Amino acid sequence: MWMGLRTGITRAGVAALLAALVVALVPVVANAEDASEPPPSPATTTTTITSPPPSTTTTSTTVPDDGEQETPPAADDGTTDLPPNPAPDQTEPETVEPTPPPPPKKKIFFTPVKRIDAKRDIVFPIVGKTRFWGGFGDCRDNCQREHFGVDILTYGWKGLPVVAAQDGTVTKVTYDVGKAGCSIRIRGRDRWQTRYIHLNNDTPGTDGTGYPCPAPGIEVGSKVTAGQIIGWVGDSGNAEDGQPNIHFELRTPGGYPVDPYKSLRAARNIEYEWLPQDMAGTLTILSGASQPQDSTMAIIVDAREAGRLIGRDATSSTYNAPVLAIDRSDPTPTILDLQRLGIQRVVVMTEGRDRWIEELVGPYVLVAETSGFPRISEDAMSLMPDEDLSIVFGDQQTGRFTTVISGAVDRLPRSYRTTYESYIDTHRSVVLTSSARGSYNLGVRIRNRPSRNADRSLLWWNTADGWIGTALLDDIPDSGIAYLTERMATPWTLTFLESLKRYPPMPVWRSS
C-alpha cells in the first residue's frame, strides 16, 4: 500500500514540474521569433520587450536631421546593460609618413656569365697600401655590360708599382685605347690569363698623358716573372674621371672570366723595409734588435767606415756573425750589445792604424784578429780563427740602393735558393746570417701611403725617413737600404727589387 502511494506522488510531482517548465519557456521562444524578424525601416524603430508576467512596451526612435543617430535601447532580457560607448579621443591622430615605393630595378641587357669557383696561387699585383672588395658581376654602363674583374684602389694615389701576378708571357698590350686605356695581358705556363687595366700613362705630378706605358721593355712576347714591375697605377681609359685603380682580371685558358676576389685575398705580398742610408745606423738598429744566439763571435767596425762592409770591388758580402758599429765618441751602446748578446771574441775591421777599438772593447771581450775591409776574391775568405765567420764576394754590379738580408738565411727553402743566390751575386748586398730569425718592423715598411693631408702639389717618395715630398721629378731623395729578413727574401720580393733597380725611381702623386 505504501509503495503504491509513493509511486503515485512521484508521478504527480513530475507532471507538475514539466508544466512549470513549459510555461517558463514560452517568453524565450517569443523573443527568439522576434529576433529572427527583419529590422524595421530606417525612419521608425519599434522594439517589443516580453518578460514574465507577459507585457509589451513599444518605443519609437527617429534619426536626427543632422545625421547623428541615437543608440537604440537594449532589450531587457534579464542581462546587465553594457556601458555606453566611450567618448572618442580628442587628440589629433599621429601622422604616418607613407612608405615610398621601392626603386625600380635596373633592366639588365646582358646575360650574366657562369660563376666559376676558383682560387689561384698569385702574387698581389700592387706594391703599397690598397683596398678592394668583391665587384665581379656588377652592372656597368647602365647595365649594358658586366664587370669581369675586381678594382684595386690606392686611396687616390697614382704611381704605385704594378707587378706580374704570375710567371708568363705578355700576349697583348694596349697603350691608350677605349675603356681599358693602357693595359697588359699575361698568359701563364698553364695558359691561365691575368689582365691589368687602367695603368698609368700620365707624366708624374700631372693628369696629362705623356709617360711611357707600360714599363719599358714590356711588350707582346716578353717573358715576365711573378713580382716583376710591368707598370704603375693610373687612371687611363674610362677611369680618367674616377679614382686611380687597377682593374684586375683572372681568366681560364679558354678566356672565360673568373672572380679573382678569393685569389687576391690569399695572394702573396711583396714585403721589405727601408732602413737608414747610413750603414752605421742600420747596423745599430739590427744589433739592438738581435737576440742572443749560438755564436759567441762578432765583428766590430768603426762607425765612420761601416759603408765599406760591401768591399771596394765586391758586390755582396756574407757575414756569419753579428756585425756591430762602434762610435768612438759614444762606445757605450756597442759595449752593452756585446754583453747582451753574450759575445766573447771579436774581429775588428778597420783601414786605420789607430788601435782605439781594441783599447775600448779589450776589457770586455777577446780581440781575436784585426783586419782591413774585404776586397774581391775568388774563394771564400775567413777572417776568424774558426769556421764561424766567413766572407763571400760576388761580381761587381752597382745599384741605386744596397740590400741587407738578416736572419736564418740558411733556412731558406730550396725552391728559393736559385733566385736568392742570383740576386746577391748581381746586386750590392750585405748578408748577415745567424741561427736566429731576423727581426722585422725595424724600418719603414713598403705597404703604407702618404698622410691624408699631404700636399697634392708635390711628388712623394717612400724612404727610410718616411714620405718625402719634392717639387721636381729630378729631385730624388735617397731611399735608404732595403732590408729583408729570411722570411721576406722570397723570389717574388727579390724579383721586384731587381726590377726596381732597373727603372728610374717613381714617386706617387694625386692629381685631384
Could you give a quick summary of the protein structure above?
The chain is an alpha/beta fold. The protein contains 7 helices and 25 strands.
Key traits:
seven-stranded antiparallel β-sheet; Glucose Permease (Domain IIA); 7 helices; six-stranded mixed β-sheet; disordered N terminus; alpha/beta; 25 strands; 512 residues; globular
Which SSEs are present, and which pair or pack?
Layout: H1 2-35, E1 45-48, E2 58-61, E3 139-140, E4 145-146, E5 150-153, E6 161-163, E7 168-177, E8 181-187, E9 193-199, E10 223-224, E11 229-232, E12 245-251, E13 257-258, H2 261-265, E14 273-275, H3 279-289, E15 297-302, E16 316-319, E17 323-326, H4 332-340, E18 345-349, H5 356-361, E19 366-371, E20 403-407, H6 414-426, E21 429-433, E22 444-445, E23 459-463, E24 466-470, E25 481-485, H7 491-502
Parallel strand pairs: 15-17, 15-18, 16-21, 18-19, 20-21, 20-25
Antiparallel strand pairs: 1-2, 3-4, 5-12, 6-11, 7-8, 7-10, 8-9, 9-12, 12-13, 14-22, 14-25, 23-24
Helix pairs in contact: 6-7
Q: What would you say this structure looks like, in words?
A:
The protein has 512 residues and is of the alpha/beta class. Among the domains are: 139-265, Glucose Permease (Domain IIA); 273-489, no CATH class. It has seven helices and 25 strands. A hairpin with a 3-residue loop joins β7 and β8 (181-187). α6 runs parallel beside α7.
